[in-house]
Design brief:
single chain
Length: 291
């Protein structure tokens, strides 16, 4: 390397050093430490951890509570991801057109993303309240939206969809603005209807954005915690049918003080997410259209 190239390389490393250090300290080290702790049993008063090998993994994988929590997490993802993506796509197509108050509508739909999770949970708990909730008063019913084990997970999923629509919509609008208008002009000349243009032009050309949103939202849905923690009380009879893997991790690691068992739950979830990500990456070439 010439002296100029060496100087550029040094300055380049200097500029990326904060990011590299941040990744090592905030991401790689916690991951490695979590995997390490999963092989230990937390000692008395949180000290003197005892090495127990794969015993935590045997307990976790043989526990019905673990599989129920994993199934709860998957059920939540099955509500949030598809509905959040489809509704956001339809809104993005509508708000990408030249209509009055377009910026205002975009802001309104994006507002849930900037609201504090505690405020969101408080409002929705009031809406879902069996005795005084707005939903039951409007519908003239007495449905236990978040206390009935049969429907509580659906109620939580609805909050998740409501919270994420605005974020997905903004990403879709960005993808729509990258599609050349020539395609739609040619389709208009050929007499294609709006529906035909949507499925023949918009959906295929927007598939890279859609794939990115689906992949990131699957990961986000599988790691859900704050929403369930704030909406579902510990005394709620529906909690076992709603709590996610991360919620279960919190219970064992921070409430029960069993950090080894909690770390094992996180490692199992990490492996599950990595498997799904690998499957999605393999399917990308077949389902994503790159023009």
């Amino acid at each position: 390397m010439t002296p100029t190239q060496k100087s550029e390389a040094k300055w380049g490393l200097l500029f990326v050093a904060p990011t590299i250090i941040g990744l090592l300290v905030l991401n790689l080290y916690p991951i490695a430490n979590t995997i390490y702790q999963s092989f230990f049993k937390t000692g008395d008063f949180g000290k003197g951890n005892i090495f127990i090998g794969l015993a935590n993994y045997q307990k976790v994988l043989s526990s019905q509570e673990t599989w129920q929590a994993l199934w709860n997490t998957v059920k939540y993802a099955l509500i949030e991801v598809p509905f959040g993506v489809v509704i956001a796509l339809l809104l993005a197509v509508l708000l990408n057109k030249k209509i009055g108050g377009r910026s205002v509508y975009r802001t309104i739909f994006f507002l849930p993303m900037v609201c504090a999770p505690a405020a969101v949970a408080m409002v929705w708990k009031w809406l879902y309240n069996t005795q005084f909730g707005l939903l039951n008063n409007v519908l003239h019913t007495k449905v236990a939206w978040i206390s009935d084990p049969k429907i509580a997970w659906i109620s939580i999923g609805i909050i998740g969809v409501w919270s994420i629509i605005g974020y997905n919509m903004v990403l879709f609008i960005g993808g729509l603005q990258e599609i050349p208008g020539d395609y739609y002009e040619a389709a208009d000349i050929d007499g294609a209807s709006g529906v035909r243009q949507f499925f023949s032009i918009t959906v295929p050309l927007l598939s890279p954005t859609t794939f990115f949103i689906v992949q990131t939202r699957i990961i986000g849905a599988l790691t859900i915690f704050d929403l369930m923690f704030m909406v579902m009380d510990k005394t709620n009879v529906a909690l076992p049918k709603v709590q996610s893997i991360v919620y279960l991790f919190y219970q064992y690691a921070f409430t029960n003080g069993n950090k080894g068992y909690g770390a094992t739950l996180v490692v199992i979830l990490l492996l599950f997410i990595m498997l799904l990500t690998w499957i999605l990456q393999r399917a990308e070439k077949k389902i994503v259209y790159h023009n």
